[in-house]
Structure formats: C-alpha cells, structure tokens
Design brief:
Layout: H1 2-28, E1 50-63, E2 66-69, E3 74-80, E4 90-94, E5 105-107, H2 123-133, E6 141-146, E7 154-155, H3 157-162, E8 168-177, E9 186-187, E10 194-198, E11 218-222, E12 227-237, E13 245-246, H4 253-264, E14 274-285, H5 286-290
C-alpha cells in the first residue's frame, strides 16, 4: 500500500513538472511587439537561420477559365535555413503550430454556375448577381492549401532582390468548397501538386499567356533595425499547369468531376493559368527572435 501511495505521488509530481515545463515553453515563445509575428517560427531549430511571416493582401488566382481575386489575407509563416551556395536557395521549415500556409477561403465570382455580370454593369446588377449566384447554396469558395510538407517549399532572398529566378516555390492544391461539391473537391493533390514558381522578375510563359513582371517592394527596418519589413512585393507566375479535379460531389464524383473539369477547363496546360500575389513580408534572424 505504501509503495502504491509513493508511486501515485511520484506520478502526480511528474504531471505537475510536465505542466510547468509546458507553461514555460509556451511563455518562451510569447514574443512581444512586432516579434509576436514570429511566435510560430521554429527559431530554436539550429538549422533555421531566419524567421518569416508574410501576408498575401491581394492579387488573383486564374485557374483555367476561372479568375478568383484574393480578397481575404493569406498567411505564410515559418523559418528558412542557410543559403545553398550552389542553388542559392534556402530550405523552408514549417510553423510550429502546423499552420504554415493559412487555409483562407476566397469567394469564386459567379459561384457554382459561374454567372458573372459584365464589368461595366450597374452596381445594383452586380449586387443582385452576388445575392442569387454566390449565396450559401450556389456560392463556391476556393482555398489554396499546401499539397506537400512545408519542407518542400524553397525560398531565395537573392531571387527576390535581383528579380532573377524563383523567389518562392510552393506545392499547392486548390480546395473547392460548396454544399453540392462536398468536402473533398480538389484540383491538385499530394501526388499531383500544382507547383507555383513565384518570381519578382519577368515570367516567360508559353502562349496564350504573355510575360508579366513582379516587383521587389520597398524595405524598411523595425524594432531597432532588427526586423526587415518589405511592402509592395509582387510575386507572379503564369507558366504553371493544373490537373483535373477529383473528389467533387462525394459518391457522385464520377458524374460531378467531369462537369467541374468542363466548367473550369481542366486539365489546364501551362500558359493558361496565372498566380499574382501582393505581399507584405517580415523576416528576422532566429537569434534576434529568440532574444525577444
């Protein structure tokens, strides 16, 4: 009996110690001020050299015949390692809360039926169109999600600054959400991801797309020159391809998938798709972040 009591006390003590350690660990990452943006940066990983927090605040995603404006901010966060001297790129490390790329729904103009009034239509016509074709039943949200682990993301500071090559490479899939489509309707997957090779430079897409040019943005320093902030970054890519949709309509996917593919124009070859992201970016060395 005495032995059982001692074991119980020991177990309770271990639980208390574990809880205290957990509280301490949580507090250690509760950064203050502008550094709070890096709360989920894996800054204690010795391979991570810089923390990154970026927000896509605008732009558009054109998939086949569908154009979706980015109206809700999308966040990319985590950390990246030292520069590979041969490739001049850095490996990316996922956010500690598991949300490296936020799953932010963007409303698809025209909803499920794809009915969009002409651009010069009166305001009331546009509002009525949204009411009838973008409501809870007919409205469709498009969400860009990571298709592969965050370790497959690569980043290049040099490419961003000098407008040469890929600044950010993302493996993604597009989640189409609507009551009729179900919860498993995707364009792209872990076995067939959409690869975005985003650049601040000028693209060289096949026709019919034409070259478009991004922007480096304007840099400034925050928190005693310890955080680098870039505003006005424009990342572009219009040379990517997209596979067919899958999982749309649940058990009726064999009927619904072809309809969605026909409506969007999938598969969509390189030269028929576009990604434009207007970004504000924050970065700071992990040593500096850990000190705050």
């Amino acid at each position: 009996m005495m032995s059982l009591r001692r074991s119980a006390r020991g177990a309770a003590l271990l639980v208390c110690v574990g809880l205290l350690a957990s509280i301490h660990a949580t507090a250690a990452f509760a950064h203050t001020g502008e550094f709070a943006k890096f709360n989920y940066c894996p800054s204690t990983n010795t391979e991570v050299k810089k923390c990154l927090y970026s927000v896509v605040e605008g732009g558009e995603f054109v998939l086949g015949s569908k154009k979706v404006p980015i109206v809700n901010p999308v966040t990319l966060q985590g950390g990246y390692g030292k520069v590979n001297p041969e490739t001049l790129i850095s490996k990316f490390y996922e956010a500690t809360n598991g949300v490296t790329l936020s799953k932010t729904p963007e409303p698809v103009p025209g909803g499920l039926l794809g009915i969009v009034p002409p651009e010069k239509s009166p305001w009331i016509v546009k509002q009525l169109s949204k009411f009838f074709f973008e409501n809870g039943l007919t409205g469709v949200n498009s969400t860009l999600e990571l298709a592969l682990p965050a370790s497959e993301i690569t980043i290049s500071e040099r490419a961003q600054l000098f407008q040469e090559g890929t600044a950010l490479r993302l493996p993604v899939k597009v989640h189409l959400e609507n009551p009729f489509l179900g919860s498993t309707c995707y364009v792209g997957s872990s076995t067939s991801p959409i690869w975005l090779n985003l650049t601040t430079g000028t693209t060289a897409p096949p026709s019919p797309n034409q070259p478009i040019t991004g922007a480096v943005g304007t840099g400034s320093l925050l928190e005693g020159e310890t955080i680098l902030k870039y505003t006005g970054i424009k990342l572009v890519d219009n040379a990517w391809s997209a596979p067919t949709a899958s999982g749309c309509g649940g058990i009726l996917s064999f009927l619904v998938n072809p309809i969605i593919n026909s409506m969007i124009g999938l598969p969509s070859a390189s030269g028929h798709n576009t990604a434009i992201q207007n970004v504000t970016l924050y970065s700071s060395p992990t040593k500096t972040v850990n000190a705050h």
